Amino acid sequence: MTVTQKLLKIFLVDKQLRGLQSRLRTSEKYLTEQSSGLKALEERQWSLEAQARQLAASAAERQGEVARLDEKLLTVRGRMESSQNHKEYKSFLAELNTYKADRDKAETQALESMSKSDELRAAIAEVEAQREEKAKIVVIATDERDRRMMEIKDRLQELQRERDALAADIPKDPLREFEQLVRARGDDAMAQIEIQDRKRHEYNCASCMMSIPVETISSVLGSGRLTLCVSCGCILYVTDEDAKRLQEPAGKGKGR
Ligand SMILES: [Zn+2]
Predict the structure, then answer these.
(1) What is the b/e burial string over 110-146, where b = at least 16 CB atoms within 10 angstroms of the residue's CB?
(2) Where are the domains of the chain?
(3) pTM of the entire structure?
(4) 29 Cα–ligand 1 center, Å
(5) If one looks up domain 20-168 in CATH, what number appears?
(6) Span from the CA of 111 to the centroid of ligand 1 (angstroms)
(7) DSSP run (H or E) holding 251
(8) What is the per-residue pLDDT across 160-208, written as a single tens digit (0 to 9) for each?
(9) How far does residue 204's CA lie from ligand 1's centre (Å)?
């Protein structure tokens, strides 16, 4: 068997490996997207909850201030009632008005904080519902990924063993060249030489469809060295069936 024929075997195994792994990659990509969506919702919820805590603390502080000022107002009113003269009364009244203004201000702030806190609570409930939905999707996506992994695990190992055995039988240099081509071109790393018209020596590369000179055919059939398509750079091969036909004298048979 020529190196090209050996590489073709490995190429077909690699194709199956890539096919299996690409299905797994699709479900892994979906899982990653859903997980990061979940993380974003969790962070949003934490941030809203932190804001809500801050507002609740500030509302409590303002309410405490209202209560303190209420006590002061009570005290000043008592003093006003027992004031001895108009001057004293007027001075208590001024004090009373200052406390009143401070109290109203603190009360307004407390109410504002509470109303903002209500808005936040509604937003938190909404985010929480979204987060719970997303968490369910992540569980399903994880199961799907695991299921696919289990499904292909044995087949992957089997193909990998097959590949290792094939690779062990191929000289290092052509194997490396082949692997570089696969990385660059994937499923187009190798292409069959198609026979268009044998009598007229018309052949073409199945990957780029460009025509291939007859010397190239001889090179693929004869030396067994790697022969690349001059147009697209893929490794050319001839199927066993075509190789047999090409080795018969031209003009025999159907002569296609
Ligand atoms: Zn080509």
Answers:
(1) beebbebbeebeeebeebbebbeebeebbeebeeebe
(2) 20-168, 175-247
(3) 0.65
(4) 33
(5) 1.10.287.1490
(6) 77
(7) none
(8) 999 999 999 999 999 999 999 999 999 999 999 999 998 898 999 999 9
(9) 8
